[in-house]
Amino acid sequence: MDWGTYDRADLEGPDFEGTDAVPVDPLPEWQWIWRAWHRLSAERPYITQGFGVPMGGTVIEGRPGVIPWSAVERWAAHYGLSQAEMALLDRVILAMDGIYLTHWAEKFKARTQK
Which one of 4, 27, 76, 81 counts the least CB within 10 Å of its CB? Predict the structure, then answer.
């Protein structure tokens, strides 16, 4: 599968310097999935959540949800993916979302328990 050439900056995520996060550098044959996950993250729904604490403190913010299957289907149709490629993309995006959402929840918990 040929997806053309990329500017390396398009594939890089945020600056991880000073954090314990490890940047991911996918193998070239898997960069199409990494690119799809990053681009489809804009389709991710956010669910409002919040809680109050004694003495009037309140935390309200959006919690990210999983990338909808319909967004993955549109992506696959746009790029002419086969059914097998679309199924692979869907499964990997779900797995990546699981890791992302777990990481987000851990950061939220650490931020709110100070």
Answer: 4
Q: State residue 52's pLDDT score.
A: 76
The dihedral through the CA atoms of 75, 77, 79, 85 has a sign that is positive
Give 103's Cβ-side CA count (13 Å radius).
9
Q: How long a stretch of residues is the chain? A: 114
Task: Name residues of the chain where pLDDT drops below 70.
Answer: 1-22, 114
What secondary structure does DSSP assign to 45-105, as a single string?
A: -EEEEEEEEGGGEEEEEEEE-PPPHHHHHHHHHHTT--HHHHHHHHHHHHHHHHHHHHHHH
Place of tokens 């999983």: 66
Are residues 34 and 11 in contact, defined by beta-carbon separation less than 8 angstroms? yes
CB distance 33 to 24 below 8 Å? no
From CA 71, how far away is CA 40, in angstroms rounded? Answer: 7
